[in-house]
Amino acid sequence: MGIPQTMDSLRERSAVVKDSLLKSQTITDNMVSILGSFDHRLSALETAMRPTQIKTHSIRSAHDNIDKTLKAAEVILAQFDQTRKAEAKILRGPHEDLESYLEAIDQLRANVRFFSSKKSFKSSDGIINHANSLLAKAISKLEDEFRHLLTNYSKPVEPDRLFDCLPNSLRPAASGQSEVGGKNHSESKKQSLETATFTLPTLIPPRVIPLLHDLAQQMVQAGHQQQLFRIYRETRAAVLEQSLRKLGVERLSKDDVQKMQWEVLEAKIGNWIHYMRIAVKLLFTGEKKICDQIFDGVESLKNQCFAEVTASSMAMLLSFGEAIAKSKRSPEKLFVLLDMYEIMRELKPEIETLFESKVCTEMREAAMSLTKRLAQTAQETFVDFEEAVEKDATKTAVLDGTVHPLTSYVINYVKFLYDYQSTLKQLFQEFDSTDPEAQLASVTTRIMQALQNNLDGKSKQYKDPALTQLFLMNNIHYIVRSVRRSEAKDMLGDDWVQIHRRIVQQHANQYKRISWAKILQCLTVQGANSSGGGDSSSGVSRAVIKDRFKTFNIQIEELHQRQSQWTIPDSELRESLRLAVAEVLLPAYRSFLKRFGPMIENGKNPMKYIRYSPENLEQMLGEFFESKTWSEPKR
């Protein structure tokens, strides 16, 4: 195929392409024209629809506002309805349904808060004023209800109910009499008290406590703390005092105490000890418990109410203790002072716990002050007792030389003291930090020495020096024996005991020397001792021997008549002294009788001179120190 043909073909193809491009441009122009037309129409449509959109939005906003308004109205109407219902309950009063009444008060308070936050509501102020007026009436009725409940359920506790709350060991005896002092005191009893269980009495029924608590809370929220405090204090304080008076507590002054007979006062002190324990461990602790429950959550009011309720009763109890501590001191008061000091020490932990708040400071300090005062008075009574023992000027002499009443009194006193060992050690430490055992030993030693000094003086009242020695022997022996059998031995020590046993022996030896030396001299003849030294009686005249027998008879009879009326109360000591005399007298008499008896028996009327056999003498010695009247024995 040639070139011309090729060129024609290319031209044809070029024309076709050109024609196609022209058609494509025409189509493009048409599409642009159509799209432009759509854009114009859409703009027009949007413009046309805009008012409709605005109306629709307004309708929706109005609908939302209507919903909100309706809901707000419903809430307000509900508040109105709740206020109406609360008002109805308030007007009915709290007696029918206290719980519902308290709920109504809470509702009124909620309504006041609600309308206080809705100041834009035109009627808010009126509604708030009305609700507050109702609340004032409601709180006034609450005060009346609180007083009514508290008064109705606050009754004095009968003594029998209080006694039932005590451990068995502390309950009164059937006789109703209480003993104090060393008579019934023991360390074991004190230890048993440490583990004893006390059961609190029911002062207000448990079911009433929550109601009183709720009433109190409402009154506090209403700002009526002072009215609440006054009602509670007046009611409970009066009931507490009545409980104590039923028990037997009375308000006594120092002058009242001074005028009382000791027996009456001693009984009252014993009762006071029981009253203190019952008051603190049962009544005051019970008051603290109900105070804490009723005023739970109001600490200041809780403490203040408890302090005011118990103040008068506590003062009444402590005033008696103070009157005793300040009264005239005397030895017999020491043990009751120790009992009183001991109960205050026993109650110290409870008192410190019960009266720990600031408003109770005065009562707590008054109790601690009484404890210190009792300790001081007891210590001063110790000193008084030592001086009284040493200076005792009792003129009553014991004619038979037995144990003097002062000796038995002092020894019993010391024995009782040792029933209070732990109490005494605590007492000593109130004033002196040195070893309390050493202090107790020192006190005991001084009392014993004071007694011995006094006995030495009393022994000089006897005209018969032999009776002087017998008296001292009896009394020192009684002291030593009593100490050995008591806890005082551990304090005074073995050395003290041994020294005083030797003193007893010294007095016994002195008695033998004074009483029997002259009689024994009758059984000796110058140059011919009855106990030996010669094997014959030559050189001694019968007249001398007769005189010796005669003198011996007179002296032994006088001695027997006199000393058979004397007394050695301790049987062991009595037998020991008789034996000691017999060991000296009988061998000497037998020897004298054996050597010189034949000289008399071979003469006229031997019975006139040899009146007693050794067996007769032994029988006579058996009658010594028995407080018996002498009669002439038969041979």
UniProtKB/TrEMBL annotation:
Alphabetical keyword list: Exocytosis, Protein transport, Transport
An MF annotation (GO) of this entry: phosphatidylinositol-4,5-bisphosphate binding
Biased composition (Basic and acidic residues): 182-192
Renumbered residue ranges of the record's region Disordered: 173-192
InterPro entries, per database record: Cullin_repeat-like_dom_sf, Exo70, Exo70_C
Exocyst complex subunit Exo70 C-terminal domain location: 271-622
Record GO biological process: exocytosis; protein transport
Record keyword Transmembrane helix present: no
Coiled coil: none
GO cellular component entries: exocyst
Function recorded in the entry: Component of the exocyst complex.
Family to which the UniProt record says this protein belongs: Belongs to the EXO70 family.
Name assigned to this protein: Exocyst subunit Exo70 family protein
Taxonomic lineage: Eukaryota, Viridiplantae, Streptophyta, Embryophyta, Tracheophyta
